[in-house]
Design brief:
Layout (H helix, E strand, L loop, with lengths): L3 E8 L10 E10 L2 E9 L8 H7 L3 H5 L4 H12 L4 E3 L2 H13 L9 E3 H8 L8 H7 L11 H21 L8 H9 L5 H10 L1
Parallel strand pairs: 1-4, 4-5
Antiparallel strand pairs: 1-2, 2-3
Helix pairs in contact: 5-7, 5-8
Length: 203
């Protein structure tokens, strides 16, 4: 399996289009089923954190005032992940902020995202919820730290991503779990998982 970078943002809100900014990012490099490198930093985008977000994440406005500028952090983290395929839990959220924050430093994303949330809906259809915390419990994965902090969430998303790949190999007898196959699975209707896998194995 290719090396991938699993990322997670904490932010001031849900939408960079509405002026929300990232407050923390983490990226972990997953190779051979193990995390082999990590990047984490708070980041100051100059936007105040609402009180309910402070309560959720534990990231305060005082912490952000002391953090490095968002532009500096994004240059570092984009260099750190390079051209590795990107993975995130609920990737549509992280992708928006990744693209918006990269755009502020005149960079553009070159690779597509794999979404562990979409994959989990197809591979773990009986899970009671497909939120990260519920899936960590459902799959009996280690809790890496406080939820809604970027490094802990990225580590747990990496563990989940690896478990999803293992499930495809062990339960569905997929010999080679490629990033491209995972992207096809996440785009397929939930009911079409077996057909999607069968097409891959017939190639």
């Amino acid at each position: 399996m290719e090396v991938v970078a699993v990322i997670d943002f904490e932010t001031t809100g849900l939408s960079p289009a509405q002026g929300d900014r990232a407050t923390e990012i983490a990226a972990v490099i997953l190779e051979g089923g193990k995390v082999v490198d990590r990047y984490q930093s708070l980041m100051n985008g100059g936007v105040r954190i609402p009180s309910f977000i402070e309560s959720l994440t534990g990231i305060s406005n005082e912490m952000i005032r002391r953090a490095p500028p968002a532009a500096e952090v994004m240059r570092e983290v984009s260099d750190f992940v390079g051209d590795y395929p990107l993975v995130a839990h609920n990737a549509s959220f992280d992708c928006k902020f990744w693209d918006a924050e990269l755009g502020r430093i005149q960079r553009t994303r070159q690779q597509e995202f794999v979404c562990s949330l979409l994959l989990s809906r197809r591979i773990f259809p009986l899970a009671p919820s497909h939120k990260l915390g519920a899936l960590v419990e459902y799959a009996n994965l280690p809790v890496a730290g406080r939820y809604h902090r970027a490094l802990a969430d990225a580590e747990m998303a990496a563990s989940l991503f690896q478990r999803l790949k293992d499930e495809l190999r062990d339960r569905h007898q997929v010999n080679k779990v490629s990033v491209e196959l995972l992207r096809r699975i996440q785009r397929a209707p939930k009911s079409q998982l077996k057909k999607c896998i069968a097409r891959e194995q017939s190639v």
